[in-house]
Amino acid sequence: MSEEKPEQPENDQEMPLVSHLTELRTRLLRCVIAVFVIFLPLLYFSQQIYTLASEPLRRFLPEGATMIAIDPASAFLAPLKLTMIVAVLLAMPVILGQVWGFIAPGLYKHEKRIALPMLVASIVLFYAGMAFAYFLVFPLMFHFFIGSAPAGVTPMTDINSYLDFLTLLFAFGLTFEIPVATVLLVWVGVVNVAYLVKIRPYVIIGCFVVGMILTPPDPLSQTLLAVPMWMLFEAGVLFSRLIRKRGDQPQEDESGDQPPATRP
C-alpha cells in the first residue's frame, strides 16, 4: 500500500527580497489607484459631502448662525480635503485586501482560516466606530458645546477647524479595532487570557485616559469613548478564549505541512 503524501502549501518556494519589494510596490500602487478612482467621481459632490459631514454640528447652531470660512481659499480646499479623506475611507476594503494578499502566502492554512475573518471584522469594526461617533457621539457633544455658550455669544465654527475635528472619526474607528488587536496578541502568544483578565483594572483606567486625550475636555465625550473601549476589550477577551495560540499547530502541520517560506 502506497504511503499518502502529506499536503504541501501552494507557495513553498522562497522569494528573493527584490520580488517582495516589487510585489509591495505593486500592491501600494493598486491602493493609490483605488483611492483616486473613488476620489474623482466624488469630487463633483465635494460640497454636498461637506454639508453632510457638518450636519451634526449645524443642527445645533443657533437660529441665523452658520459655519464660516476665515481663509478665502478654505471654502474650496476644506471640501476637497474632506472628499479625499472620504475616498480613502471608502477604499479601505481594497487597501486591507491588498494587505491580506501580501501576507497570506506566508500563513498556514489554519492561520488563514483565522486571519481572513479577522480582516473582515477589522473592516466592519472600523466603519462601526465611525458610525458610532457620527450618529451618537457628535450630536451629544455638539449639543453640549453649543448649549454651554455664554449669553450674548453666537457659536460660529470655521470650516477648516471643523475638518480638524473630524479626525475624531478616525480615533473612534481605530479604537473599535480593540477586539481584533486583543485576539491577535493572544494568537501570536504575546499575552494570554489569564494575563488580560489580571490587567483588566489597568485597562479600564487606560480607556478613560485615552478618552481624555482624544476627545474634547468634557466628561460626556470622554465617557462615550472610554466605555465602548472597555466593552470592546471585554469582547476581545471573550473571543480570545475561543482561538488557539499560533504556535499550537494542528495535527496536519505536525504530519508534514510546512509553513511557506515566502517571507524572509
From TrEMBL:
Q: Does the keyword Transport apply?
A: yes
The UniProt transmembrane annotation reads: 28-46, 82-103, 115-145, 165-187, 199-217, 223-243
Does the record bear Glycosyltransferase in its keywords?
no
Q: How does it sit in the membrane?
A: Multi-pass membrane protein
Q: Where does the record place a coiled coil?
A: none
Q: Which InterPro entries would you find in this protein's record?
A: TatC
What are the protein's UniProt keywords?
Answer: Cell membrane, Membrane, Protein transport, Translocation, Transmembrane, Transmembrane helix, Transport
As for subcellular location, the record says: Cell membrane; Membrane
Main subcellular localisation: membrane
Q: What does this protein do?
A: Part of the twin-arginine translocation (Tat) system that transports large folded proteins containing a characteristic twin-arginine motif in their signal peptide across membranes. Together with TatB, TatC is part of a receptor directly interacting with Tat signal peptides.
**According to its UniProt record, which protein family does this protein belong to?**
Belongs to the TatC family.
Tell me, how does this one assemble?
Answer: The Tat system comprises two distinct complexes: a TatABC complex, containing multiple copies of TatA, TatB and TatC subunits, and a separate TatA complex, containing only TatA subunits. Substrates initially bind to the TatABC complex, which probably triggers association of the separate TatA complex to form the active translocon.
The name this protein goes by in its record: Sec-independent protein translocase protein TatC
Write down the species. Pseudomonas schmalbachii
Recite the lineage of the species.
Bacteria, Pseudomonadati, Pseudomonadota, Gammaproteobacteria, Pseudomonadales
